[in-house]
Amino acid sequence: MANPLNTLRFPLHGERLIEASAGTGKTYTIAGLYLRLLLGHGPLIEEGADAGQPSAHERPLSVTEILVVTFTEAATAELRGRIRGRIHEARLAFMRGESKDDLLAQLLEEVEDHELAARRLLAAERQMDEAAVFTIHGFCQRMLKQNAFESGALFETEFLTDDSQLRLQAVSDYWRAEFYPVDKTLASAVRALWPSPAALLREMNGWLDNSELEIHPALGDETLAARHQAAMARIGAVKDAWLAQTDEIRRQTDGQISRYTGKNYEGWLAKIADWAQDESSGYAIPKELERFGQTVLEENLKKGGAVPTLPLFSQIDELLASRPGIRDLILQRAAKVVRSRMQASKRQAHQLSFDDLLKDLDGALGSGLGERLCERIRATYRVAMIDEFQDTDPQQYRIFHRLYGGHTDTALLMIGDPKQAIYGFRGADIFTYIQARRNVSAHYTLGRNWRSSSALVAAVNGLFEQAKDPFIYEADIPFLPVEAQGKSKALLLDGATAPVLHCWQLSGQPTFNRGDYQSKMARATAAEIHRLLTLAREGKALIGDQAVKAGDIAVLVRTGSEGKLVQQELARLAIASVYLSNRESVLEQVEAREILLILHACQNPSEERSLRAALATGLFDLDARALDGLASDERAWESAVQEFMEYRSIWHRRGVLAMLRALLHRRNLASSLLASPYGERRLTNFLHLGELLQQVSSELDGEYALLRWLGEAVSRPGGQDAEQVLRLESERKLVQIVTIHKSKGLEYPLVFLPFICSHRTAETPLYHEADEAGNRTILDLTGAEGSLAEADRERLAEDLRLLYVALTRGVYATWLGLAPVRSGNGKSEKTELHHTAIGYLLQKGEEGDAETLATALTELSQALPGVAVGEPSLTRPAPLPPEEELLGEPQVRHFTGILERDWWISSYSGLAAQGHGHSKGVLANPGFDDEVVTEAAVLAAEQPEEAPQPSIFTFPKGARPGTLLHSLFETIDFQSAGGEPLAEHIASLLLQDGFDESWAPVLQQQVEAVLDTPLETGFGEPVRLRDLAPEHKQVELEFFLPMGRVTAPALTALCQQHDPLSRGNKPLGFATVQGMLKGFIDLVFEWQGRWYLLDYKSNHLGMSPADYSRPALARAMAEHRYDLQYQLYSLALHRLLTLRLPGYDFEQHFGGVFYLFLRGMPQGGIFHTRPSRELVLGLDELFRNGDRSGGVSSTELNEVEA
């Protein structure tokens, strides 16, 4: 029996269950129990099994000893904030000696030492950042790390927040191994079930994390080939018999069986004959064959007709009763193999997913060292409070039961509401809650609703009391009506108190199909919201004394498609709304494809096709006439080309986000988008994509890599990355559309449930079965009708709980959309309503028709005074006029802060740039030379009219070819590169980057020449790149160097003093900068005990090897300020060796620098130098401590310029 919970008398030890119905103050209660644990509060228990025992824990606890677990990061943050706030309120109460809060006032009476209590609460408040308030996964991760020895956890692991690609890879590997070798017939049968590995994954995705799932029938030794062969034999036997006995079939059925005559009969025979002759039909069995089974024939036998005796008819019955198939066997094997492959892949890569955390901790607690681990965790957390316990699963419950079960000196408090267990699709298991409910010695209830009005609470109570067993599992999930605290406000319409439960009843026809029902209810919802807002503007729709606002209204739906229906209807009436449950990726939206076209045009402004495609996007809002006019208006076209060249320049200098913002401002996109339908949504997507692309670009090698990434992401969106999920388009107080699942825990003044008669019957025979060991989860693939019926019973039970959640969100009024809904387009007057949650309550689980529903609603309205039944208005009113906002005179806001302008992440190219600017973003991109863009533009005019002979000198110039050459040397194994594998790799890169494959022989010859060219080090034997083993080199070494206050004069003076190449160069001209210097070194390698850095250059210096002589290279190095580049890279390598190499000495271990101008090798093209020790140490000192000679800072300079 459940006991009413008294927060100040509740026993704080042992295993206890608290059932908190909707709106009864669950979080308030948790915070109150938390306070008692901090204070050590607890008088003697006066009644029950624990009478005479203290209710307090054995001693006051700190915040690090009280574990609070919930299931989402958002809930964790909210709980932590609510507990912190409650501690603060209590501390002030103990300091002041008084409180208006009833619970705190009683605590003040019962806690003797107020000063000590205030000190304890102050300590707790200061320590709240360390409080043990975690998600279940966060708790498991922390326990595995802190107890690595007992748990056997790896010390270095990568945490996977999104394992969707890993899953797809594992299924694809299984698909290739299992199905590629099979014959054509079997392959076709597999493709008929699942057209791709992704389709197979979609069916089994939810099973992969449940290692305890039992799949029936049990997997034996039967092979797929053997099953297929036997199935084809059974089908083939029926086909052969049919073809051989066609005349006898006709003799025994034609005219002998009712309705087996005429065109229909002949059509059946023809279709079956076609099937019998089709060798490629596989597992398909025509529906017409059912008419020739022995059972059907006898049922339709004419009076006095001869009973058919052909054995084939019984053979057909047997075939149809046990249809041949391979689906169950494939799913059985796939689940086992894919799960194993995923685990192996994660172990090999030292990766963990969310579910691995639970599995690993569960396994550790059940191992030989499990009891020791349990003791350590109990010693750390003396009390555990599990919030939203109804959403737990067997594994989670087993973890906490092992930790705290049977221990009276600790406490396990499980808090939840089984009536709100609605996350079965995530693995939550109501049957685990039921098991825990049976295991605990005592459970308690919170029975007073503080959320809704008294009338609405009474209406919801009355609705659920209509059915004898409202939640199906009456013994374990009883419905206990809650009391209402009582709110003084109510919804007033035209001066009268409105009903609290509006039941709209569609009539006019016997039944409605689902599509008709939803479209009518969406229209009715929009019309009613329009009416409420119109009345509110007239002062006739009030909540208390406040006019109803759009933000007071929520429409709760099951799916995104339902939400869009409502949003479209509201938009037709000019009512703004926001969908709060959108989990789609921003990369699936049209704006992502439009931005991809714009980026292509920015990279190639002179390419007419790309530029036209970009200008034709909806973002530019150009009509057909304007686009056509560009073809004839040369000046306008040149202006567009110039505009996109400027965008390309901004992209290159400042990044993709800056470029998109420049486009936004230049084209006034914000105002044009906001003036269009769904403009806020489109503008939000545009800005979101800009930020996402900027973030991604920092991890990629240049603009072309970003274009490839976006192109692939747009063509194959997916994954679970939170950064890609659509953002909320508006924070204005709009009509809110939200899924029932997401609305859980929230409240809304007015709630609409327009599609409450929609449901989806269970399609997967997944159900639960209790035995002595607990609850088993069973997936029955045998096709047994009872299994699917049990699964649908569990589906209905969860739908009832979902209905309870929906009906308890409203504060003042709720609208329900009801109709006699049928499935499909049949003409039956019987409805499917009894299969829905609302129909189960109203019709007490019985099948019925429109009259049945009407009678039930009439009885409900007569029994409950707050319920009103009526027809919804389906008339679409005129759009709602815009509401004029009363705004004061706008005032310019004055900025009084100080901008710190000289801390940046800069790069070599930023420091090498002339003028008083410097890099305000990361411009260092691996595999990309800034100068090749200019070089390509200059050389473009020098191209001969006839195609030149292919050679490394005639290979295209510019950024893309340069990136390709870098990528080539990054991705090959120096020692084995050559022959056919190298040729194939080069051809693949050429195709990938849009180059003709005919360049492959030229590049292969050049690559092999570069690898085999001896590089003189000045220390003993020369080195060839081909001599370098993988463990002696590192490609694309990324570095970040801290910079003190570095000035251009100081850096110039240092470099010119110690490097002859810098001595002849112009002084550097960047503004004073401090922060971080980022860069990528193409190659760092070790040779004979010395370390070298190497950079590849794709610069075109001429058409012969003589153009790549040492003097020519020195000129190119100086012209492009590569001297500064290798000086900074040398500093980076020096810092790395200082940290990583024991006993490092510059003279002994630093080898030098190689710059390989690839087009000039092997005859020339090699620049080698070794910066002096004085230069490198001087750079180290300058970057570490900055220029101490004084001078104007960049902040001061910027202020002067402003």
Automatic annotation (TrEMBL):
Free-text comment about domains: The C-terminal domain has nuclease activity and interacts with RecD. It interacts with RecA, facilitating its loading onto ssDNA. The N-terminal DNA-binding domain is a ssDNA-dependent ATPase and has ATP-dependent 3'-5' helicase function. This domain interacts with RecC.
GO-annotated cellular components: cytosol; exodeoxyribonuclease V complex
Pfam family membership, one: UvrD_C
Active-site residues annotated for this sequence: 1095 (for nuclease activity)
Additional facts recorded: In the RecBCD complex, RecB has a slow 3'-5' helicase, an exonuclease activity and loads RecA onto ssDNA, RecD has a fast 5'-3' helicase activity, while RecC stimulates the ATPase and processivity of the RecB helicase and contributes to recognition of the Chi site.
Coiled-coil blocks: none
Function comment: A helicase/nuclease that prepares dsDNA breaks (DSB) for recombinational DNA repair. Binds to DSBs and unwinds DNA via a highly rapid and processive ATP-dependent bidirectional helicase activity. Unwinds dsDNA until it encounters a Chi (crossover hotspot instigator) sequence from the 3' direction. Cuts ssDNA a few nucleotides 3' to the Chi site. The properties and activities of the enzyme are changed at Chi. The Chi-altered holoenzyme produces a long 3'-ssDNA overhang and facilitates RecA-binding to the ssDNA for homologous DNA recombination and repair.
Biological process, per Gene Ontology: double-strand break repair via homologous recombination
DNA-binding and helicase activity, interacts with RecC: annotated span: 1-852
Description of how the protein assembles with itself and partners: Heterotrimer of RecB, RecC and RecD. All subunits contribute to DNA-binding. Interacts with RecA.
InterPro entries in alphabetical order: DNA_helicase_UvrD-like_C, DNA_helicase_UvrD/REP, P-loop_NTPase, PDDEXK-like_dom_sf, PDDEXK_AddAB-type, RecB, Restrct_endonuc-II-like, UvrD-like_ATP-bd
Database matches in NCBIfam families: recB
Cofactors that this protein relies on: Mg(2+)
Gene Ontology MF, one: exodeoxyribonuclease V activity
PROSITE patterns: UVRD_HELICASE_ATP_BIND, UVRD_HELICASE_CTER
Note on cofactor: Binds 1 Mg(2+) ion per subunit.
Gene3D superfamilies: 3.90.320.10, P-loop containing nucleotide triphosphate hydrolases, PCRA, domain 4, Recbcd, chain B, domain 2
Catalytic activity: Couples ATP hydrolysis with the unwinding of duplex DNA by translocating in the 3'-5' direction; ATP + H2O = ADP + phosphate + H(+); Exonucleolytic cleavage (in the presence of ATP) in either 5'- to 3'- or 3'- to 5'-direction to yield 5'-phosphooligonucleotides
Region annotation Nuclease activity, interacts with RecD and RecA: where it falls in the sequence: 902-1202
Keyword Hydrolase belongs to the record: yes
Protein name: RecBCD enzyme subunit RecB
Family from the record: Belongs to the helicase family. UvrD subfamily.
Amino acids binding Mg(2+): 966, 1082, 1095
UniProt entry keywords in alphabetical sequence: ATP-binding, DNA damage, DNA repair, DNA-binding, Exonuclease, Helicase, Hydrolase, Isomerase, Magnesium, Metal-binding, Nuclease, Nucleotide-binding
Domain spans labelled UvrD-like helicase C-terminal: 470-745
